Amino acid sequence: MTFDIKTIGILGSGTMGSGIAQLCAQQGYEAQLYDIDQSLLDNALRRIEAGLQKAVEKGKLAAEQVPLVLGRLTVHTQLSDLAGCDVVIEAIPEDLALKQDIFKQLDSLCKPETILASNTSSLSITALGGATKRPQQVAGLHFFNPVPVMKLVEVIRGQRTSDETMNALTGFAESLGKTAVIAKDTPGFIVNRVARPFYGEALKMLGEHGSNPDMLKTIDTVMREAGGFKMGPFELMDLIGIDVNFAVTQSVWSAYFQLSRYRPHPIQQRMVHAGLLGRKTGEGFYQYES
Q1: What is the third-level CATH fold of 193-281?
Q2: What positions carry a catalytic annotation?
Q3: 119 confidence band (pLDDT: 50, 70, 90)
């Protein structure tokens, strides 16, 4: 099967979903953004408009292009409105059962040639494909936050994903200006498997020092100035969302049968329970303006 990709459905209007929708619309695709509630979509549109304005200020987008980009973006609260899309990218919370249910629904709604992709950070693409009657057209398409900026995209092959689907999604990712890397369907794929100790060791050190704020600042500073990272582990967890980071850590740890190097830390759980999720709530390891 050959694929002609023009219209992209994005399922989930959170940070990742809205970022993917913005990027697709900027690159000339028709972007159809879905969520269960109009207020969530309204918030997403505000984030997208702010992101476009930021791109204008940095000279990466001409001001006259903003209304054209927004004109290629449509929002929906009915899942059936994505039925005509050429590719649907799922970007909902990291819950395998929830994602499998969504993929089953998409399989029955979408046209036969539609590719179903997941932005999951760590869950099994094979398991998602198994929930459909088109596993050969199911793959992972994992973007990184912030989507319009980060160059890497993991294209993940499930057990039954076809070469045609992999080639189509690799070409699509490259058309967005991304660097596409092919990943196996292993827990955490490439980046999140490698990244777990980056967060985990930092959390262990912080826990051993009684969650001392000076210690977390020191760790971040050392990783930036001596380690060469753009952000320290605590800064990055705040950007990603501590709830998202914790969910991915739990997923990878469970998938590797509780291998100690991937074990979550109680600090993450405590912060999630407290609603201290990072930038999106105004406070995480650091405090932020609203």
Answers
A1: N-(1-d-carboxylethyl)-l-norvaline Dehydrogenase; domain 2 (1.10.1040)
A2: 121, 142, 154, 192
A3: very high
